């Protein structure tokens, strides 16, 4: 992952910062005092259930709507008093594509170059470079209406890059994409950051944030419920455990006696032991079983992940219920 520190160990300057950001619609408070600091050259992911206010944050920071209170700076410009400076430094790609389906991909790109006041020569050069970079050369002369969802999303980001932005806001950029297209988009995002771009990402896909983000914030009920690296957030949530399953009732009973702090499931002949999933703890459990001459038929390890963080920090009524799968199974 890209580093958020400069040479010498000094923190990078903030690409985006907010203090006490507030926004209401009528009597509904959407943002209730949001503080953020996003270092330049990093990926920041804002998580939250539907309606949490993720898109509202992006709209305020990209000058599309005004905040009701608080302050925000983007690329060193105050969002309220220097919106033109902000717009010159950013690109925005939403979950709903800005691509014009009635013209070709190349024409979409050239139109964006005109909007950025590039000369025709510059526009053609930048268009050709970006079409090649995003693997759209073969499709460039075809109407965008014929593009797949993944191709349209790549074209959308390519159009965003015509203006050479330092900061890109990606508002749920992989919504509706198939797994292969989603992974392709992740690679594009990694390459952008390697090139020095700061990425502000909103997403409902926990795996996406885990894969890409240097830092993650969870937005719920108008407030930041938690912020940190993926590993820091995972450590906030208890519940890691090892589950041992047996087919021999005698071995099951012996293991229950040999191990401490177990939760028994007599019907399934399974034992659950609190664990942080480290190699040391696993070795300790297996050594105690070996000393008692007992071997489990199945061992599974569960350590808290971003799903657990999301469920714990957001209203359960807003989060679709999905069965948790063990991270690892050893037979």
CATH class of the largest domain: Alpha Beta
Task: Write down how many β-strands occur, each being a DSSP E stretch of 2 or more residues.
Answer: 15
Helical amount among residues, as a percent range? 25-40%
What is the structural class? alpha/beta
Mean pLDDT across all amino acids: 87
Structure description:
There is one protein chain. With 331 residues, the chain is of the alpha/beta class. It is built from eleven helices and 15 strands. β7 (167-171), α6 (179-194) and β8 (198-203) form a beta-alpha-beta unit. α3 runs parallel beside α5 (149-161), α4 (120-133) packs across α5 and α5 packs parallel to α6 (179-194). The chain is elongated and about 80 Å long.
Topology, element by element:
Blueprint: E1 14-25, E2 28-39, E3 43-47, H1 54-61, E4 69-74, E5 77-78, H2 83-89, E6 90-93, H3 105-115, H4 120-133, H5 149-161, E7 167-171, H6 179-194, E8 198-203, H7 206-212, E9 215-220, E10 223-228, H8 230-235, E11 241-245, H9 249-258, E12 263-265, E13 270-274, H10 279-291, E14 298-302, H11 306-313, E15 328-330
Parallel strand pairs: 3-8, 3-9, 6-7, 7-8
Antiparallel strand pairs: 1-2, 1-4, 4-5, 9-10, 11-13, 11-14, 12-13, 14-15
């Amino acid at each position: 992952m890209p580093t958020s520190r400069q040479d010498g160990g000094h923190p990078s300057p903030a690409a985006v910062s907010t203090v006490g950001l507030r926004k209401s619609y009528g009597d509904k408070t959407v943002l209730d005092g949001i503080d953020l600091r996003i270092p330049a050259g990093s990926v920041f992911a804002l998580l939250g259930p539907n309606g949490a206010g993720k898109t509202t944050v992006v709209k305020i920071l990209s000058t599309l709507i005004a905040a009701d209170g608080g302050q925000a700076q983007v690329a060193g410009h105050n969002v309220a008093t220097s919106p033109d400076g902000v717009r010159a430094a950013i690109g925005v790609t939403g979950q709903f594509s800005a691509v014009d389906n009635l013209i070709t991909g190349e024409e979409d790109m050239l139109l964006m170059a005109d909007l950025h006041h590039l000369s025709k020569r510059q526009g053609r050069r930048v268009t050709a470079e970006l079409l090649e970079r995003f693997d759209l050369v073969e499709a460039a002369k075809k109407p965008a209406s014929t593009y797949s969802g993944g191709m349209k999303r790549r074209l959308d980001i390519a159009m965003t890059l015509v203006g050479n932005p330092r900061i890109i806001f990606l508002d749920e950029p992989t919504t509706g994409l198939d797994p292969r297209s989603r992974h392709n988009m992740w690679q594009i995002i990694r390459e952008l950051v390697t090139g020095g771009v700061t990425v502000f990402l909103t997403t409902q896909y926990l795996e996406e944030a885990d894969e890409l983000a240097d830092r993650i914030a969870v937005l719920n009920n108008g407030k930041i419920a938690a912020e940190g690296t993926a590993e820091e957030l995972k450590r906030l949530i208890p519940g890691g455990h090892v589950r041992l399953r047996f087919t021999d009732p005698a071995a099951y009973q012996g293991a229950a006696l040999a191990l401490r702090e177990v939760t028994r499931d007599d019907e399934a002949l399974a034992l659950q032991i609190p664990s942080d999933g480290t190699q040391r703890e696993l070795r300790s459990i297996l050594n105690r079983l070996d000393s008692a001459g007992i071997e489990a038929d199945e061992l599974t390890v569960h350590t808290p992940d971003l799903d657990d963080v999301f469920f714990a920090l957001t209203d359960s009524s807003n989060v679709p219920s999905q069965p948790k799968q063990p991270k690892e199974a050893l037979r």
